[in-house]
Automatic annotation (TrEMBL):
The lineage of its organism: Bacteria, Pseudomonadati, Pseudomonadota, Gammaproteobacteria, Pseudomonadales. The keyword Phosphoprotein does not apply. Gene3D superfamilies: GntR ligand-binding domain-like, Winged helix-like DNA-binding domain superfamily/Winged helix DNA-binding domain. This is GntR family transcriptional regulator. Pfam families: FCD, GntR. Residues 19-86 form the HTH gntR-type domain. It comes from Pseudomonas qingdaonensis.
Length: 229
């Protein structure tokens, strides 16, 4: 009963139109997970959510399945779907994968970038310099990186990268300072965009790798600081 009341206070009890149920429930749960209102380990039971939103269990089940695919939920024996840990033990592997995927996307994209693409990237940097809300900064960081990769012809590659960046956004929202998303990171971003604008592919890839290495170091430090279960 206590968890049901807690869910009500977090998500509200506004009824959801049947034809929008899956997408609306998914987005509300995602937002609550990403900004920390739904804490790691909290169980999300299908029937409670269905009652809360005034829908059948089917759209709730589909929404939970989507969130599990995004690594925001885990299915645990005897508990069902629970909010995933803030960052998983395979985060280092994810960053290693990002270096490989994003370096290739940057190589493909830079020769095709035009003035509009560069202006878009610089616009995101300007917003990052002025933004103080952590959730917005995580989203702007993702958009900035994707702006530099957007012209890569390999669309599957871009989808894989976007998924990885979306997962990382959750960690960024809580640990922006340790990840260096301040003056230092904007210097990194500015140098990266400058190299892209100049068509300096090898230099841009090197700058990107160094930038992502800082993220790997921050994640290593975060994981090392957590109590051993």
């Amino acid at each position: 009963m206590a968890e049901k009341i807690k869910l009500l206070s977090i998500l509200g009890d506004e009824q959801v139109p049947a034809h929008l149920a899956r997408s609306v429930i998914e987005e509300r749960l995602r937002s609550a997970i990403l900004d920390g209102r739904l804490a790691p380990g909290m169980a999300l039971r299908q029937q409670e959510l269905a009652t809360l939103f005034g829908v059948s269990r089917m759209p709730v089940r589909e929404a939970l399945r989507q969130l599990e695919a995004q690594s925001l939920l885990q299915v645990v024996a005897h508990k069902g779907a629970v909010v995933a840990p803030l960052i998983s033990e395979d985060a280092m592997d994810s960053y290693g994968l990002r270096v490989i995927l994003e370096s290739e996307a940057l190589r493909q994209s830079i020769p095709l970038l035009d003035a509009e693409d560069i202006a878009l990237a610089r616009g995101y940097i300007e917003q990052l310099q002025n933004e103080t809300r952590h959730a917005e900064m995580g989203q702007l960081n993702r958009l900035l990186h994707m702006a530099l990769y957007r012209k890569a012809p390999n669309q599957k590659l871009l989808r894989l990268i976007d998924n990885e960046l979306s997962e990382e956004a959750r960690f960024l929202r809580f640990h922006l300072s340790s990840m260096g998303l301040g003056k230092l990171t904007q210097d990194d971003h500015i140098a990266l965009v400058d190299a892209a604008q100049a068509g300096q592919v090898d230099e841009a890839v090197q700058l990107l790798t160094q930038h992502l290495d800082k993220g790997m170091q921050a994640i290593r430090q975060y994981l090392a600081s957590q109590p051993q279960g």
